[in-house]
Amino acid sequence: MFVGGVILDESVLFQVRGGAGVLVRKLQRSNILTAICYGLDLSAHKVSELKRMAVEYSCECFLLNASMDDAVNQISTAWSDVGGSILYVVSHNKDSFRKLNCHWLVIVVGVEGVSACDNSTMLYINKLEELPLTICRLNKKAIGDAQIVGYIMKPSREEDFAKRGAFPMYPTPSRLIFLPLTFEIPLSSQLKEVDVILHKATDEILSIELGSSSESCTRITYTTGMQEVQRFMEDHSDFVVIDPLDNIFSVLDRHKIQLILLGLQDLNVEGCRTIRAPHFLKVNNFSVPDLAQRLSEAKLSFPSIVKPQVACGVADAHSMAIVFGVQDFKDLSVPLPAVVQEYVNHSSTLFKFYVLGENVFHAVKKSTPNSVNLMKSYERNGSRPIMFDSLKSLPTDTENGHSGDVASFKVDDLDLRLVKDAAKWLAGKLDLTIFGFDVVIQEGTGDHVIVDVNYLPSFKEVPKDIAIPAFWDAIKTKFESRKTERATRTLPP
């Protein structure tokens, strides 16, 4: 049976690094019932702490008496619809679990090198951090043909996905089971259990050295843990990865992605709306004497937006500026090399597109103001460049008290078919399964301009009942596709 409930004994609750709350949330967001239990010998202070924790994380809190029968009956009553097996997780130092007389599966923590005891009603793990791996393994055994998706990303991003139910350890309708890969236990023991790897490798970048040509990044240094994942993927070339690390290099380099977007011109038909890249220029030095001429030759006028060439994964990748004349480049603090990009007047309306396999979704968001309002901010700022961090806050027209112009575009102004064609073209060009891009519509011309491309976005603007199943389907489809490719390669000629 699937794991339907987990009871965490107080003897293990404070062993997990980062606090028990992280583990409890992972379980609850996997639709696994969770409870805390404690014995009569626990101090009043610790009992109070456990009860506070139970309230904070909305889970049950049970007292285990000497015989444990009362607690078993309480839990059986409270979890009458558990819908699966119950795991009781306890430290090997506590003997009370040996008195259990029920159908629970006991997970004993703190024993190394043993996987099960003779009666098969007990499993042994060394650390509590191994519990998610154990649950995923049990659930895969219960369903048989499920796939375990091992995922790795920074905690805040994982939280954004998990709170919408994207990463359940309980099997999804697509028969996927999600395992949070952790560096707290050996990765080798986790990776040998997974069928698919999902990563946000940009969260694990320590440094990026850009190449001297348009061939994008020449050297990326990942964290020690991500390097181990990278070696595993290199040693297992047939392993399914969403998406291979080489495929995301293009979105790490703003110059290279701009060069790729130039190919959008092949999608345009005379007499119809146009989708295109913004005009741009790569700059290695803001002090070159012919900068004004080079900007003009690149069809750039003012204002323009200046962005670091490195698009993500490093601290200052989102440190940007809006400049209003060549003089603004003097002592500009945007990291070099940089990309000077056309600023498109778009009535403060941004269309965020999300590609999840074969599905394309979009959302409408407020954006930066038109150039006339930016100029007012520029003048109030003493005619100095407008500096901002695009992850924290965007330039606004503060005098008018809103984030730009009142949007003049209607939904009908968006040529959805054109942008979906571009999404399909871009997916093929980048060879990515899950990515996002931003579109603005230029005032006057109606041009659809793709101003940014990013890998594995949160797609939180799309309702979860639509986005999450599409997310699962994209992963499942990629797995099935790779499996078919492998089978085809092994067929005799």
From TrEMBL:
Q: Which UniProt keywords apply?
A: ATP-binding, Kinase, Magnesium, Metal-binding, Nucleotide-binding, Transferase
Q: What Enzyme Commission number does this protein have? A: 2.7.1.159
Kindly list the cofactors needed.
Mg(2+)
Domain of life, source organism: Eukaryota
Record domain Inositol 1,3,4-trisphosphate 5/6-kinase ATP-grasp: where: 274-464
Q: Name one GO molecular function term.
A: inositol-1,3,4-trisphosphate 6-kinase activity
Its family remark reads: Belongs to the ITPK1 family.
Per UniProt, subunit arrangement is:
Monomer.
Protein name (record) = inositol-1,3,4-trisphosphate 5/6-kinase
Q: Which species is this record about?
A: Acer negundo
